[in-house]
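Fold it.
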Amino acid sequence: MSLSHLSFKKRIIFYKSCIQIEMQAIRSVLAADFVDLKNLK
C-alpha cells in the first residue's frame, strides 16, 4: 500500500513537470505563430 502511494506521488510530480514543459512549448509555438502573423501583415 505504501509502495503504490509513493509511486502515485511520484506520478503526480512527473505529470506536473510534463504539464509545465508542455505549457512552455505551447507558449513558444504560439509566440512564433504570432510573430509569423505580424510578418505576414
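The radius of gyration is 18 Å.
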